[in-house]
């Protein structure tokens, strides 16, 4: 896992397969290209989608997820850009994942749909500390635990909320899962991410745990400002 304080788009990526599809000639490449085009068309109306193209060793499986508050237009742009960028960053790899602030795209030659992904994960955090970390950490957990419950019972596995900290300050949070998971696995992933926050983001003004199937975000800054102006 990687701790990073400052990031540009894309946020991060993993080329998690060590197999090259050049070893299997061109069909996998063609199927992958068709799959990424399919996802860029299929996902934006609802913000999530799966796809599989090809047979046997040339079978390409993929999914894409857009952040729950992102417009259809921005969702499509993000997925299209992610599809191009992941092929540049992971040339000829049979499995990879890439995250932007607005979306994630993941593909593999193996069927991963519905599986919890504990391998592809990273942290983001604000370098600034809060004044009372113990109290702050407790309130972060209260907010995110409530959002975990709200997300896993919802049809979109997505929830946002805020918590009044007093002195005209608020804490904002987000929880989201990919919709190929069961509701119970969604909650399991989100609760696991909540438990990881102290190890990466103890007393920080903002923090994220971002994985292949779930994302948590907490910050003093409203979500729309994170999306438009970078992670503060």
UniProtKB/TrEMBL annotation:
**What Pfam families would the database entry show?**
Stress-antifung
Q: Where is the Gnk2-homologous domain?
A: 9-112, 118-223
- Work out whether the entry's keyword set contains Repeat: yes
Q: What is the lineage of its organism?
A: Eukaryota, Viridiplantae, Streptophyta, Embryophyta, Tracheophyta
Identify the keywords attached in UniProt to this record, alphabetized.
Repeat, Secreted, Signal
Family, according to the entry, reads as follows: Belongs to the cysteine-rich repeat secretory protein family.
Q: Which InterPro entries match?
A: CRR_secretory_protein, GNK2, GNK2_sf
Write down the Gene3D superfamilies for this protein, in alphabetical order. Answer: Gnk2 domain, C-X8-C-X2-C motif
| Superkingdom, taxonomy of origin | Eukaryota
Keyword Oxidoreductase assigned? no
Q: Where in the cell is it found?
A: Secreted
The protein's name: Gnk2-homologous domain-containing protein
CC annotations in GO? extracellular region
Species name: Dovyalis caffra
